[in-house]
Amino acid sequence: MDALLDFARGPLFRFSFAILVLGLLRILILDIWGIIEALRKTDDKKIPWKLVSIRTLEWFVPVRKVFSNRPIYSSLSILFHVGLLLVPIFLYAHISLWKGTVGFGWPALPKLWADILTLLAIGTALALFTGRIISKTSSFLSRKQDYLWPLILVIPFLTGFICANAGVSPVLYRICMLTHILSAEIIFVLIPFTKIAHCIIMPLSQLVATIAWKFPPETDEAVCTTLNKKGAPV
Amino acid sequence: MNRVQNTKLVLWLIAGFAAAVGITRFVFGLGVTTNLTDATPWGLWIGFDVMGGVALASGGFVLTAIVYIMKREKYHGLVRPAVLTAFLGYIAVVLGLLFDLGLPWNIWHMMIYWNPHSPLFEVGWCVMLYTTVLLLEFSPVPLESTSRYARVRTFLLKFRFPFVMLGIMLSTLHQSSLGSLFLIMPFKLHPLWYSNILPIHFFLSAIALGLMMVSLESLVSHWLYRRKAATHLVAGLGKAAVWVLSVYLVVKLLDIAISGKFGLIFDGSWESFLFIAELLISIIIPLLIFAVPKSRNSLAGQGIGSFMVVFGLVFNRINVGGLTMLRATGDVYIPSWTEFAISAGVVSTAALVFLFAVEKFNIWEKRPIDPQTLPDTMPSFDRASEVWLGVPAVAARTKYSLAFILSLSIGFAIMPGSKIQSQGVAEVTAQKARGGDVLFIDGNRDGYGVMFKHTDHTKRLENAQSCVKCHHMNKPLDQQSGCYECHRDMYSSSDVFNHDWHSDYSGSNIACGQCHSAGEERRAESAKKCDACHTDLIPEGTLIEVKSNMASSYTDAMHSMCLDCHTQKAPEVAERINLTLCTTCHEAAPPDYLKSEVGESLRGPYFNHVVIPGLPERTEGD
Amino acid sequence: MSKAILTDITKCIGCLECVKVCKNTYGLEYDVPRTWQKNDGLSAQNWTAVLQKPGKKYIRKQCRHCLEPACVTVCPVGALHKTAEGAVMYDSDKCLGCRYCMMACPYGIPRYDWDKPVPYIRKCIMCYPKIKNGEQPACTAACPTEATIFGERDALIAEAHKRIKETPGKYIDKVWGEHEIGGTSVLYLSDIDLGFLSYQPHLGNTPLPNRTEPAMKAVPIAFAGMGGLMYGLNWIIRRRMDKQGKKENEE
Description:
The complex is a heterotrimer. Chain A is mainly α. Chain A has a single domain (2-30, 45-212), classed as Fumarate Reductase Cytochrome B subunit, CATH 1.20.950. Chain A has 11 helices and no strands. Chain A is globular and about 70 Å long. Chain A starts with a helix and ends in an 8-residue tail after the last helix. Chain B has 3 domains: 34-335, Up-down Bundle (Formate dehydrogenase/DMSO reductase fold); 438-486, no CATH class; 499-601, no CATH class. Chain B has helices at residues 2-28, 30-33, 44-56, 59-69, 76-100, 109-112, 119-138, 140-143, 150-158, 160-180, 198-224, 231-258, 270-291, 293-297, 299-320, 326-329, 337-360, 392-413, 454-460, 467-470, 483-486, 499-503, 530-533, 554-557, 562-569, 576-579, 592-598, and strands spanning 381-382, 387-388, 438-441, 450-453. The radius of gyration of chain B is 36 Å and the shape is elongated. Chain C is α+β, with helices and mostly antiparallel strands. Chain C is 34% helix and 15% strand. Chain C is elongated, with a radius of gyration of 25 Å. In chain C, the strands form 4 sheets. In chain C, strands 8-1-10-9 form a 4-stranded mixed beta sheet. A two-stranded antiparallel ribbon of chain C has the order 2-3. Classes of the chains: A mainly alpha, B mainly alpha, C alpha+beta. Chains B and C meet through helix 1, helix 2, helix 4, helix 7 and helix 10 of B and helix 2, helix 3, strand 6 and helix 7 of C.
């Protein structure tokens, strides 16, 4: 078990973290590349930059959503995201691990705040999960991974919380720690390849949507070709 | 055309590993990413990337000489790929060098700080100039795709002959000067490879290598794009190579015979076998293959022959560049996988650029067309992520980038060296302990324990966040930090002074305050010295001045008195052997009065009975 | 003017005072030897070391400060230079880290900061700042038995020969570094063979730079010669082709 923990903390962590960073970077580059290529093909090169940037900003700061549609769901979601992002990045224990490798750290959250945010993240994740099951509209739109993700995300938070707070026996502690590390690593690896990649894709989505409406000439033919229905009546 | 795509995929994978190593190399230094030592400061990166790379790029000057100087128009079709290979080869050399140099950001210093005596200075300048010349020689090719730069292109083409001349002259210099680099190491390089005319060896072999590299590259790229191989051209080059190789062989063997080293070839050492193998692979077997018309004109013969020359002569560069020095230096150097990754990665990147150029510009008479980039093929899907990959051009991009990041991440994961693992939290210096819940810690189970005040530690280590400073977060395997990790100046097992014994109930049983004065940090420096209590144990007129109770070295064990004893008490050389023994001054067994008090539990050094020569002997009961 | 250090092996008692004072003078850190490396005492943090040989022989190893140093010759940017005082100095601002000096040194002296992202060449500098001020190097000052002494090179050679003559049979009749590869500024007097200090036991008296000099002198000749050869070849071939073309036209 100790060897496994060591492996999970060393090589496996380096692998998954590299996949996370590089994978997101790759998506970003490929997207921008695609946008540029698409832009080059269109005739109308005017883009409503102002509107696009306002929409993107709104996505980043989703305060208006809370007051407009589905206030409970929106506020839960915001809280969930706050916990999800802040705790792993600003936890003292994580920062000191980084300090040991790269030589520099950053200010940490106080322990109490970290605990509250962790519990908040766990609670909101479970609430969102139940919400998805209960609500008919959302369960109709949901895929399997939509149900799975809140549950997967809860695992590292729960185990991390146990490790940091509860005085458990050494064996249990190790199991908890291993689960914590491994689940976080699985999440890291999955992020660039699943819907969690929205953290990178979403800011661009407004732009993509805008450009997507500017069909290049002969698009219809290309669509037919790609669908293998060349010559068929539209 | 899957052949091209698969090849590219593999090349991207290798490039990914190289990128991981490259990043690690620049962040953590050469020590983590190479097996180089002080005795072997040049390794694979110099032997293969730089020496081999320059030699491999010699096709450019050889072929331009054949076509533009000797006017053999038959080979005109091979000039563009050869010049491109040479250009990319030199870029790859510079790239490889940037990884190998300790301070790569200073590489431009060669332009402002001159040392014309140095062969490396000359090589550096020639490489710089020749790379520029190659760029100017090659740039008309990409420029022909746009009419905007037509004037620049015609201007450049006007100077083609001077460029070719300059290229040949510069190549002559630095191909041979790579050999001159090793003239200064007659004591390290094995005599079979060392020669006063090493530059000539290098130049001759570079010509042969250039011919064969162009051949091999033509054969491989034709195979890759499924075109008919230009066997008649390669046969012509092979014929030329026969002449060059024969001259090289004669020069090499004559040189060895004249300097009387012929016997070394057959002396049975591993170097002699290496030499014979190198000679067979790089010269003799290809010479036979290309001398016989039948094998010279066959595709298999050409492929094997040219590969052997290329492999054998690059091998020669590695042998000269360090492999055959190992006997003299007595060092063991086996390149780590990270070094191989960089070498392979640099080559892969160059190959990718080559393939890109071949598909985009008119390198060959006919540009190869990838049927999968045609618009009317089906789009593909990435099953795993349910992402539409778009038309194949985009799909290829997606696949290559995925391969790249995958191998990069794996590369990071398997990176050797403890430096890149987290070192844990920062060291915290502990201060005086005060009350609270007390743990009895006996780490090594020797019966001597320490009273560990837990609350006191937590308070001092920033209260709420203190736990992780000792527990499970800062070390693998959930171990707590050992006391010594913070208390660096605590007594240790190498002490002359046995702290446990002094404080323990079975020993002297003295309280802390009896040695460490109150209000001060309890450390060795601030404690009372031994002679404060043991007044009777140190004889009068002693040389010992008790400074420290550590004995972490021989000097400490001798009370740091090397010079005192040697210069004052026993300046005679004949007597100094005895001085190194403890028993010269001390009696080996503890005196009886100590034995009777503490009995069997007594441990450690108890050389209390001092009989220093020339001093009055201390008697019992003094 | 040229200063030197003379080390008498028979006088050394192996007390390591020179090593200690050297470390203290330059603030050298603890040595972390690379486990796979053959340890010969010197390292980036150890500019001088005392080797022990059977029979209680202690040999101090340090940079030899050759009179015609190979390292100075080969450095492409001139980061190493031989001062008039005799020390071979290193200028870390110029260095680009090619490590050619390490390759060229027949004694294997220069060491490298392998574990640092910004590595430099490290070696003994004969306490150049001190000898410039007229002091002697830290190591010779610290030596308790005067086994290693500092002075004018000529005077030290004379002293060495005097010692050999005065006590016949005590020393091997050779001053190591007097003529070896053109002479060095660190001399040894010994009763055992010191061949192990260099990569080969006998280095000969030819200075190492002399070995690359002919090749470097031939550079301009090779450059111009190759140019002339190629141009001449081209001229001949063109002329022949012209003639052939004319002939074909006439026919």
